[in-house]
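Look at one such:
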Amino acid sequence: YAREERSLQSRWTPQAVAANQPALSWRAGIDVLRTTTEDCVRSRTAGLEKIALRLSGGFDSSVVLGLLRGCSQAEIVCVNEYWEGAPEGDERDQARRVAEANGVLLHQLRFDPAAVSYHRALLAPLTVRPTLSILGYADPNVAEFYKDLGCDLITSGQGGDHLFHRSRTPW
């Protein structure tokens, strides 16, 4: 993938790694996926006091919330960033239900496309495809909101499709 002078190149692919591994039974695969994912979450959150999870209420961010609750000692607060009239739809009700079911505080943060600094968006790291995350990075109101939360980590369910190997990348 290339854009202007920037490029993104894969150094490995899941297919190449999987081709060199023995096939696992369904149960063993579930166990390996669960253990590996939990170990990653424990490792990444060790020593943190407060984590903000960008909770859409969809499958991926809901799974991340469950993992955080089970694998981290940190306080977890959830934030649902919504954009009125977004083509993806309004997921505030789903996020609210997921947060309530998990006993965590949910903040709702209205995303305002008019507040986006497109100059700042251009400074964001290159990704394979544009995402709302880049727009959130470019909105100073969103950045200030997260700063005021005082969290050690801001995370989301983004990339969950890769966990279940539904990659949109060409490699």
In short: The chain has eight helices and six strands. The mean pLDDT is 83. Helices lie at 14-19, 26-45, 59-71, 92-102, 118-122, 132-137, 140-149, 160-163.
